[in-house]
Amino acid sequence: MSDTVWSYRDTAWSQDSDLIGYDVEATDGSIGKIDEASNDAAGQWLVVDTGFWIFGKKRLIPAGAVTGVDHDGKNVIVNLSKDQIKSAPDYDKDDWNDDSRGRHTDYYTPYATR
Length: 114
Fold this sequence. Notes:
Blueprint: E1 23-26, E2 29-40, E3 43-49, E4 58-62, E5 66-70, E6 75-78, H1 82-86, H2 98-112
Parallel strand pairs: 1-6
Antiparallel strand pairs: 1-2, 2-3, 3-4, 5-6
């Protein structure tokens, strides 16, 4: 499993900060707000509530896809377009296991290494 997918590019982005409630900005506009966040050493990720944009679905975005965090403006920037996020694997908190994590790793690896 690729460590770059599940780690922030800059450790200061998540250090001593709770990102829940921050807006998430894709390369082509806002996609929603962070509903959950993990800073575990084994995997850092965000769960974004997309609201009406994709019919209330939540999307898990690994920390490796984050390219910037503005703590003053409460904004997280990712290097994904809205369509790329919409096409990402579905996230189900009750079904989060090695298999579903593997699907997310496979999907997001190209975006975490840019």
